[in-house]
């Protein structure tokens, strides 16, 4: 097997997990890689990867799930790949069609049924029934695939019961990308947050915390909801926020080089408590201390690495106190940053995960065809 096609109807072509990590690692190791997206930016070849554009995504979620998913699948089939690697739950609905043309792997970025339980745009009475149905549908399709890649060990525990060809490929940072950051020799009192911005990702608490902080917050990312942005801008702490909007990887590196600490104070939702947020490890790889939510898994990572401070993510004063400690103790904070960097070099890096991914691909090739698997299941 030499030809791989990754497919997404949701994510951008520059997606960190899909393009920068998985596709690039495969292309650098002898595979012919295509990536099918739906962003209306046209076809291109980049980093030895052929990017195929299926056109603009449908604006409504319901149409995207059917029409956009069908378009990217049809484009993917046209690439005549040996293996199709799908990245969105709606693409499972077309997995039977893909299996007629090659092997299929599902990449579970999130625990979608649990994620649904915390989606603000879904009416609360509908969340549990929709979560239940989603899990049943996901399980139905996944057990017929050639393999499952998950973003965390927690998600893997669920899928390995359904499909024994399951592995966790953790979303750890690329050391080569973040290891050459040149930090400002005299840093100002700046801390940062990099990533998607929303209520459950702690935007309200972060901004409220800033009213207690003698410093400023570099806020890099896009708001998922305009109303939330309008509301948080009325908070007193907003005057200490420097809003940067969406930033490409080059700008992210610059932000990390200027910052004394990185925030990852996600709210304690069922989807985040066992998550491994890439921003946590990117801060560590960038040699800056972290202020992180006090979830048991995160406490274990941060305390064992001695790379930061864990706080109650719902307590702005506690968050502010942790930020001030880091800003007021630069030598001790720098030591935390070095220890975080060392932990990523030892345990939490993409270079190790990419080897797992390549080995998994080789095992998938040697596994029975889906037709044989389906007969065994049925």
Automatic annotation (TrEMBL):
Keyword Transferase applies: yes
An annotated Gene Ontology molecular function: glycosyltransferase activity
InterPro entries cross-referenced by the UniProt entry: Glyco_trans_1, Glyco_trans_4-like_N
Keywords: Transferase
Signal recorded as keyword: no
Stretches assigned to the Glycosyltransferase subfamily 4-like N-terminal domain: 24-162
Record domain Glycosyl transferase family: where: 184-342
One Pfam family, short name: Glycos_transf_1
Name of the featured protein: Glycosyl transferase group 1
Source organism: Dethiosulfovibrio peptidovorans DSM 11002
């Amino acid at each position: 097997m030499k030809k791989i096609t990754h497919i997404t109807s949701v994510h951008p072509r520059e997606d960190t997990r899909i393009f920068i990590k998985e596709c690039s690692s495969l292309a650098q190791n002898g595979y012919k890689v295509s990536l099918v997206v739906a962003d209306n930016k046209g076809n291109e070849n980049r980093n030895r990867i052929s990017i195929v554009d299926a056109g603009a995504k449908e604006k409504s979620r319901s149409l995207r799930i059917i029409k956009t998913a069908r378009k990217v699948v049809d484009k993917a089939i046209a690439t005549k790949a040996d293996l199709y690697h799908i990245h969105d739950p709606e693409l499972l609905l077309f997995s039977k069609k893909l299996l007629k043309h090659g092997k299929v792997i599902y990449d579970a970025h999130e625990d979608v049924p649990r994620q649904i339980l915390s989606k603000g745009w879904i009416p609360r009475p509908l969340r549990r029934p929709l979560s239940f149905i989603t899990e049943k549908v996901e399980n139905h399709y996944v057990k017929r695939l050639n393999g499952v890649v998950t973003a965390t060990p927690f998600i893997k525990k669920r899928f390995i019961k359904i499909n024994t060809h399951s592995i966790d490929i953790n979303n750890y940072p690329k050391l080569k990308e973040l290891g050459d950051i040149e930090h400002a020799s005299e840093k100002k009192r700046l801390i940062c947050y990099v990533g998607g911005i929303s209520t459950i990702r702690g935007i309200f608490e972060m901004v409220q915390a800033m009213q207690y902080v003698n410093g400023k917050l570099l806020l890099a990312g896009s708001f998922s909801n305009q109303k939330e942005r309008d509301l948080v801008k009325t908070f007193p702490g907003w005057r200490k926020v420097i809003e940067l909007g969406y930033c490409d990887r080059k700008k992210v590196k610059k932000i990390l080089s200027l910052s004394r600490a990185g925030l990852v104070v996600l709210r304690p939702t069922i989807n985040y408590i066992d998550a491994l947020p890439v921003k946590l490890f990117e801060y560590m790889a960038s040699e800056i201390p972290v202020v992180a939510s006090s979830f048991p898994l995160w406490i274990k990572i941060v305390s064992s690495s001695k790379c930061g401070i864990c706080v109650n993510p719902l307590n702005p004063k506690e968050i502010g106190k942790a930020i001030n400690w880091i800003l007021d103790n630069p030598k001790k904070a720098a030591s935390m940053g070095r220890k975080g960097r060392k932990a990523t070099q030892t345990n939490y890096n993409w270079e190790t995960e990419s080897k797992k991914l390549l080995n998994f691909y080789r095992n998938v090739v040697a596994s029975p065809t889906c037709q044989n698997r389906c007969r065994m299941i049925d």
